Amino acid sequence: MKLKIVALSLVLAAPAFAADRPGYVAPTPQGATQAPAPTGTSTMPNNDASNHIPPGHSMTPPGHSATPPINATAGSGGTAAVNGTSASTLGVAATSGSNSAMGVGASAAGGTNNHTGAAVHGNNVLNGQARAMANDHGTFSHSHTHCQAKPNQDPTCRTKTMSHVPGSRPTMSTTTSP
Question: Which domain holds residue 21?
Answer without folding.
Answer: 2-52
